[in-house]
Design goal:
- This protein is mostly helical.
- Helices cover 82% and strands 0% of the residues.
- It has one helix and no strands.
Length: 67
Amino acid sequence: MLKTLLSPDAKLRRENTELRAENARFLDAVARRNKENISLREENRALRLKLDALKRGKGRDAAGRFA
């Protein structure tokens, strides 16, 4: 009888552990994607600054100031 009462609790703990592991994998993937997005955004900004400088015929540094 005690085993019957404890069984659902053990099942819930196992399910909770699996959900926590799945959540951790998801959060790792989100963090990885966020780092990639930040990196691509910085690269895109630098390329836009270079393009802008080429269009204007003046050189700009990475911070966007005229060199």
